[in-house]
Amino acid sequence: MDLKENYTSIKNQLPPGVQLVAVSKMHPAEAVQEVYNLGQKVFGENKVQELMEKHPLLPQDIQWHLIGHLQTNKVKYIAPFIDTIQSVDSEKLLAEISKEAGKHGRTIKVLLQVKIAAEESKFGFEISEAKALFQKYLDGGFPDTEVTGLMGMATFTDDKEQVKGEFLILKGLFDELNRLKTLETLSMGMSDDFPTAIECGANSVRVGSAIFGRRDYSK
Ligand SMILES: *Cc1c(COP(=O)(O)O)cnc(C)c1O
């Protein structure tokens, strides 16, 4: 697995202004360090425990993004250092993030995760729920968070038109909320569908296996 070749190839496919979140889940700290040494500063993990293991082993200027479902009782572990929590999927979780951020005198950036896939997904808001929560945020409900945008995952399918349709739904919501308060980040697209996501307006992509190689789920 040539990390340099993979990383360079992905970087070359991203237009200026599109952020890369390198998803390092299930890959060792050494691989993260290698990609960091190539200039990457933003990494994504989906499990608190794995993030807690890697965090002390790696440069402190890495911006860590949590991209997987987060239980409220685990927020306290990552609150001291997490840059962005992309997977906010309940009001209770957002309230807890605000509380823990406040304890550390920090503001934690968050994205609201929205269900856009046709397949039954466990996590994420319906469009109407995301709008309602964003309004509560605008009304001052979660003072130690900054809602900087939205995150979504399309259906896992080869049907490009379907994937496009789903991404465009999220782009529509992003534009709507962006008129109420300027948002920075529309996070959509993974190794298999990031070019489509960018076509549909994503300005942040979460790419794992196309950089780090396949994950070994047997371990
Ligand atoms: C694992 C994961 C990714 C990266 O997936 P790849 O297909 O390896 O690029 C992106 N987003 C989320 C939420 C993930 O869990």
Automatic annotation (TrEMBL):
<dbReference type="Pfam" id="PF01168">
    <property type="entry name" value="Ala_racemase_N"/>
</dbReference>
<feature type="domain" description="Alanine racemase N-terminal">
    <location>
        <begin position="3"/>
        <end position="214"/>
    </location>
</feature>
<dbReference type="GO" id="GO:0030170">
    <property type="term" value="F:pyridoxal phosphate binding"/>
</dbReference>
<comment type="similarity">
    <text>Belongs to the pyridoxal phosphate-binding protein YggS/PROSC family.</text>
</comment>
<feature type="modified residue" description="N6-(pyridoxal phosphate)lysine">
    <location>
        <position position="25"/>
    </location>
</feature>
<protein>
    <recommendedName>
        <fullName>Pyridoxal phosphate homeostasis protein</fullName>
    </recommendedName>
</protein>
<keyword id="KW-0663">Pyridoxal phosphate</keyword>
<comment type="function">
    <text>Pyridoxal 5'-phosphate (PLP)-binding protein, which is involved in PLP homeostasis.</text>
</comment>
<dbReference type="InterPro" id="IPR029066">
    <property type="entry name" value="PLP-binding_barrel"/>
</dbReference>
<dbReference type="InterPro" id="IPR011078">
    <property type="entry name" value="PyrdxlP_homeostasis"/>
</dbReference>
<dbReference type="InterPro" id="IPR001608">
    <property type="entry name" value="Ala_racemase_N"/>
</dbReference>
